[in-house]
Backbone:
């Protein structure tokens, strides 16, 4: 018989080497194995933040977010496809055989995510969750899909813009996730604020991706998006859209734009472009099949033309030059200038009036919109002054409204001004292009005592807990443009006269003294020199009441094709209607005595 | 036999050379095996946890980790009972005294064959390894291969120490002093002696080989273990090296044949020979075991806090329980388990060295090596050191047969340790 000590030693060696092997694995590969285990055991789930609302100035929800439950499946986790298909299909009202075929196909392709049914009803959601938990279908789950809704309907689509589902990449090294992303308008400009910050749930899961409660789990709640409060008033906006839409249709225009403005606060009360679009469905369902030109036309409809499009203003521009000339003492308001119309030559330049005037006082030049008279004033001012006037009213630069795509308009560099043309062209609103928001902002100078304000469309931003994140409710003065007295007299004499006795008579209201200025401009050829024959943009900018103006309205009708094209014809009635509705809605006390009411005309509607 | 009287200074006390110390049993073996069983109960329970909570069910305890509690308790009792038994009842001390051991062999063979009988044998996980005793509830079944481990050691130990025909009635062939002639350089081994091929070596190989072969049809890992234990006993029992070499050759051929019989065994070896375990295919299990070991680190996630048991690691309460131990109790915890088996091995060696008779010596050697080699094989599989085979961690892995029969084995080992013959220390 042998001792066997060697055999025991061998066995001990084998055992000890097993223990050594454990240590060896831990030392050489411990970190790597740990990381791999963690990767397979971890699931990171994004907890979506609710996109903030966009409210109008009175707190009406213009754009909000609802979350629809949608059922999805991770086909790779399904063990028994048939069981899953026949469990889920009846609950969701799907065809089980078809679903089974689909699941098999997904599995073959290695799909990890597929929608089963989107926008479940509450009943479907509840039934699905019951089936999933009782039959342990860990591969099927419900995810909430956010949808942007517009409870007020198609209100201010161009201001709001719209959203699209897209991948959002957080600034830190966190993974990208799908979210509603602002594409146009306020949605795009304030996307960071509206989006909020998604929460993150790091879960430990079992092999079926079911969560295991483990101490390493972490949860960071989502921070919902902030609420953006606009200066827009939903009611005025709807009035403006309706009235503008009627005008655009009536005159067969290519488009029309309107801005309703508070001249004291610099707040945009309404801003509309017609034609518009439905922000809930910015793209028609068959967008992919449209031709290039048709697709471009769809995108054209998204343009907020009140800020993105500029055109030659024409006569609407006259008050800006004339008021500055008064302010600097170049002319006096009552000074009578010899017109000797209807045609007059300024050097090589010929200026025409629509009517043959002999002599006009300066305020009559405005109210009757005499081109020759403005040419005389322009000649007296000289180019340097004119350039300064134009710039002081803020033309040639963006107003800083804060919506995307704002255009600067076009004011030629002074070096390119032509002494034989510009002194007459600029005062009658040629050689220059302006946007509607610029005109309204500049026109407000006459209403608030001579100060140019920065227009505002966002009043403030409210955080998810109700805290104020930003307060923009205070007016912001850019500069003083006119002496207060000059602004007052110019408004009360020249601009009121335009409506009472001049080109803007159509805009007259019974209870309020309206003041304004018409404008009819030819449309410059896109690329080069000259104008498109027979194409005009008719504008009217007006305010009321005249003693202390509360509201300024501009309507521009672009390329009207029927029933006239003068600003006093195509735009003034729309301005009148918007003014009447707005003043009544704002409960502005009537300025004119009831007795003084002219017999003709209907009283403004009250609501 | 006289026990040396205790002097006043206890620390100075030593038994005289050749003196025999009687005690109840070797308590270290009981302690180590008991500790491993207790660890097994805790870890099997921990591994049973799923997302739906622990699989605890008082009404169907046999379907829950409570089962392991019961088995460990039965196993512990079996160990204590066996420890109190006089192991010599299985010894072949006189001609004709081997019938008890022979009965055990017959029982083992019958049960191993019974596995293949439909209605009695039970198939699970693609292998027929269990015999159904009672269809339940609660169902009672057991794996004869586990019993075969113990019986092989008892039978071979008895057979190897049976009296030879020439040596007189109570002569032991392996006791050199008693039979100098039989081991002479020129002398022929007497019939029945292990060195005698036909009457000594062949009966051992045939009877043991039958057990190994029958086990190997369905359970290659256990058969390999049994084969190794058989070789160990032949070596210790004094078989000729030429015979052992011949047997090794035959065993290699038979082992290869058994591998080829089952395709999944080929697959496992191919997986092992590949550079890294293929995580998606056949190497999935080993790969997940390595992830468990790695993610536990040195000190582990804490008892019950492991994550690989949530469906990632199959067989997590059985063959791969060590991976869960390493994940929850750390590599240090795993090394403590290894250390416990080393203690057991050390005790086994001590018991074998001091055993009062050759039968006890072979028995102690065989039993302790069976347990510890099985542990080494299991650790080798879990650490991707040897190809995957279905072999469990003794005392710890879930399963009734394993705990109960290995408890018996440990108890017998402890019983051999009852009689401790002091050796001369120079």
Residues:
């Amino acid at each position: 018989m042998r001792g066997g000590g060697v055999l025991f030693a061998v066995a001990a060696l084998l055992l000890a080497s097993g223990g050594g092997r454990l240590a060896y694995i831990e030392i050489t590969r411990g970190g790597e194995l740990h990381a791999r285990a963690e990767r397979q055991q971890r699931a990171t789930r994004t907890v979506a933040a609710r996109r903030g609302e966009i409210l109008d100035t009175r707190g009406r929800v213009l754009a909000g977010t609802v979350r629809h439950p949608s059922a999805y499946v991770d086909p790779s986790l399904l063990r028994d496809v048939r069981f899953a298909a026949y469990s889920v299909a009846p609950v969701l009202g799907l065809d089980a055989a078809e679903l089974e075929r689909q699941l098999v196909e997904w599995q073959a392709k290695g799909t990890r995510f597929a929608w089963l049914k989107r926008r479940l009803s509450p009943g479907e959601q509840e039934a699905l969750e019951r089936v999933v938990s009782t039959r342990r279908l860990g591969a099927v789950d419900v995810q909430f899909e956010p949808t942007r809704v517009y409870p007020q309907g198609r209100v201010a689509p161009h201001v709001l813009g719209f959203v699209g589902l897209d991948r959002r990449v957080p600034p830190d090294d966190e993974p990208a996730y799908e979210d509603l992303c602002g594409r146009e308008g306020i949605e795009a400009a304030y996307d960071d604020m509206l989006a909020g910050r998604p929460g993150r749930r790091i879960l430990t899961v079992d092999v079926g991706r079911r969560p295991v409660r483990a101490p390493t789990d972490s949860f960071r709640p989502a921070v919902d998006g902030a609420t953006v409060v606009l200066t827009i008033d939903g009611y005025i906006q709807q009035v403006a859209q309706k009235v503008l839409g009627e005008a655009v249709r009536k005159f067969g225009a290519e488009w029309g734009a309107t801005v309703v403005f508070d001249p004291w606060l610099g707040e945009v009360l309404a801003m509309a472009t017609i034609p518009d679009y439905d922000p809930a469905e910015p793209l028609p369902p068959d967008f992919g099949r449209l031709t290039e030109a048709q697709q471009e036309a769809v995108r054209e409809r998204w343009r907020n033309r009140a800020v993105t499009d500029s055109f030659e203003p024409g006569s609407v521009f006259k008050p800006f030059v004339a008021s500055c000339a008064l302010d600097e003492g170049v002319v006096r308001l009552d000074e009578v200038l010899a017109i000797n119309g209807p045609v007059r030559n300024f050097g090589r330049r010929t200026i025409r009036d629509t009517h043959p005037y002999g002599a006009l006082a300066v305020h009559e030049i405005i109210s009757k919109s005499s081109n020759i008279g403005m040419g005389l004033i322009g000649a007296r001012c000289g180019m340097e002054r004119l350039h300064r006037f134009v710039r002081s009213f803020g033309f040639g630069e963006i107003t800083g409204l804060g919506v995307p795509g704002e255009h600067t308009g076009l004011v030629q560099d002074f070096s390119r001004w032509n002494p034989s043309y510009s002194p007459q062209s600029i005062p009658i609103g040629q050689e220059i292009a302006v946007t509607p928001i610029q005109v309204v902002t500049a026109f407000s100078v006459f209403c608030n005592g001579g100060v140019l304000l920065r227009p505002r469309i966002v009043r403030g931003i409210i955080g998810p807990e109700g805290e104020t994140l930003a307060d923009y409710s205070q007016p912001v003065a850019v500069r003083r443009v006119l002496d207060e007295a000059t602004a007052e007299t110019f408004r009360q004499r020249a601009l009121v006269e335009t409506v009472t006795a001049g080109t803007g008579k159509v805009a007259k209201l019974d209870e309020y003294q309206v003041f304004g200025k018409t404008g009819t401009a030819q449309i410059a050829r896109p690329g080069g020199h000259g104008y498109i024959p027979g194409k005009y943009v008719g504008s009217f900018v007006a305010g009321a009441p005249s003693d202390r103006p509360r509201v300024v309205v501009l309507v521009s009708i672009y390329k009207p094709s029927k029933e006239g094209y003068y600003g006093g014809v195509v735009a003034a009635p729309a301005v009148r209607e918007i003014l009447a509705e707005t003043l009544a809605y704002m409960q502005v006390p009537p300025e004119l005595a009831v007795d003084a009411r002219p017999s003709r005309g209907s009283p403004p509607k009250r609501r | 036999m006289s026990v040396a009287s205790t002097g006043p200074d206890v620390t100075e006390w030593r038994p005289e050379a050749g003196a025999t110390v009687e005690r109840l049993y070797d308590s270290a073996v009981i302690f180590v095996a008991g500790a491993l069983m207790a660890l097994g109960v805790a870890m099997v329970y921990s591994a049973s946890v799923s997302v739906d909570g622990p699989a605890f069910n008082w009404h169907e305890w046999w379907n829950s980790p409570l089962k392991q509690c019961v088995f460990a308790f039965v196993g512990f009792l079996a160990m204590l009972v066996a420890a109190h038994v006089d192991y010599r009842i299985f010894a072949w001390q006189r001609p004709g005294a081997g019938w008890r051991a022979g009965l055990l062999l017959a029982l083992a063979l019958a049960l191993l064959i019974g596995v293949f009988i439909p209605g009695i044998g039970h198939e699970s996980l693609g292998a027929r390894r269990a015999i159904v005793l009672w269809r339940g509830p609660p169902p009672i079944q057991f794996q004869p291969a586990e019993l075969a481990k113990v019986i092989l050691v008892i039978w071979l130990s008895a057979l190897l120490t049976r009296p030879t025909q020439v040596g007189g009635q109570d002569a032991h062939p392996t006791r050199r002093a008693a039979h100098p002639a039989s081991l002479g350089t020129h002398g022929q081994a007497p019939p029945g002696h292990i060195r005698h091929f036909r009457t000594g070596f062949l009966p051992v190989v045939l009877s043991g080989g039958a057990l190994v072969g029958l086990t190997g049809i369905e359970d290659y890992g256990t058969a390999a273990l049994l084969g190794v234990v058989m070789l160990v006993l032949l070596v210790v029992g004094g078989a000729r090296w030429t015979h052992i070499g011949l047997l090794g050759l035959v065993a290699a051929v038979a082992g290869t044949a058994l591998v080829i019989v089952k395709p999944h065994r080929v697959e496992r070896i191919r997986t092992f020979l590949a550079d890294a375990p293929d995580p998606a295919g056949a190497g999935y299990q080993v790969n997940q075991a390595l992830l468990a070991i790695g993610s536990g680190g040195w000190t582990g996630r804490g008892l019950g806090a492991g994550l690989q048991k949530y469906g990632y690691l199959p067989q997590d309460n059985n063959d791969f329980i060590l991976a869960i131990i390493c994940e929850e109790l750390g590599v240090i915890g795993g090394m403590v388990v290894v250390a416990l088996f080393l203690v057991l091995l050390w005790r086994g060696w001590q018991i074998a060295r001091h055993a009062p008779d050759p039968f006890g010596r072979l028995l102690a050697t065989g039993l302790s090596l069976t347990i510890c080699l099985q542990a080494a094989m299991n650790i080798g599989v879990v650490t991707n050191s040897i190809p995957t085979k279905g072999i469990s961690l003794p005392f710890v892995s879930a399963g009734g047969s394993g705990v109960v029969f290995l408890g018996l084995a440990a108890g017998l080992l402890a019983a051999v340790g009852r009689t401790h013959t002091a050796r001369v220390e120079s």
